[in-house]
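pls ignore typos typing on phone
coproporphyrinogen I + seq
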Amino acid sequence: QENNDNKNNEFPELKNDTFLKACRGEEVPYVPVWIMRQAGRYLPEFKSVRADVDFFSVCRTPELACKVTLQPLDRFPLDAAIIFSDILVVPQAMGIEVQMIPGKGPFFPNPIRTIEDLSRVQFPVDVNKELGYVFDALTLTRKRLEGRVPLIGFTGAPWTLMTYCIEGSGGTTMSNSKSWLYKYPTESHKFLSMLTRVCIDYLFGQIKAGAQALQIFDSWSNELSPAMFKEYCLPYLVQIGKEIKAVHPEIPLICFAKGSNFALEDLSKSGAYDVLGIDWTIEPSVARQMVGERVSLQGNLDPCVLYCGDKVIRDQTQKMLESFGSTKRLIANLGHGMHPTHPIEGPESYVKAVHELSKQMINK
Ligand code: 1CP
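k done
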């Protein structure tokens, strides 16, 4: 508790608040842009850090986490930074071992396969003890940012974290985790409630440490039918947003329930989020119609456009901005994260196109 009190007063003054303004639906001079996975292996300077240090050691070393968080900002005029970490630090904090296998991704040597395995999950969790390294990285990064742009903190959503814990890796059919929902509804809700509690405590800690906005990643929500989403995702997403909002109404909250387009209306009416992320499987104009003016939208360029050179990127960005219909209540991003194989010129062209084209639209 003691480690972060009053630190907010010591942070440098924010110079570019375009992203925060767009989250709140205020007037902006241009559409702000940041990119999911903007720090990562497409950057040679990231690869050179990773050459000597394994993935979770970068996350656990505030100096290194801070360094790689700032790398993309030194290349591109992005409007927000996102702390370098991973959603899987939460299962680790609950006593579940997670390894990062180079070229493969996350691997859990002992996944939570049976309901008996739930007894192995550490709960409750002292987030200051288990995740204090993330808080330290946030505080350090907020200082080193020198107010250039706001710093975003994040967590995985309960359902997405539960799928990893049960499947033991990504890239599966989700048959184990989805079977849980159908076969063991009580235990599924129990596991999701535990994860929700840890996520909320973790996000409170991130705010205290200096995070200026928070994103909840429900990357695998698209695996669930509307009825299953309503039962196993929505209530927990709403609980997280509401509990944070009750104490910190000033911190913008972003929910990215990837591909769950049917949920946009419910999420926008829940009052739990300021911003909803969308991927490329929904037309921006349709998403805008579903959420009205209740929330800001964030997205949604197909990451694969960034392979296609400046002209295609510019044309597709123009189409995207036009489809959103208004430059208000909008944050440009991709519909998902950067790929390791992306050329550096991709995000460079995208950020430039968003800034230039949106300025033209606003000044017209
Ligand atoms: O060796 C490496 O460098 C591994 C690549 C990598 C990176 C750069 C992983 C492994 N995680 C990260 C960082 C990361 N992960 C960030 C950093 C901040 C930034 O955006 O710059 C963030 C926000 C995440 C969040 C994350 N991790 C998500 C949610 C977002 C999404 O992409 O849907 C998920 C699903 C993960 C799990 C994960 N971690 C890493 C990989 C390769 C994966 C996905 C594996 C899979 O497909 O299941």
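DSSP finds 15 helices and nine strands in the chain. The domain at 2-363 is CATH 3.20.20.210 (TIM Barrel). more later
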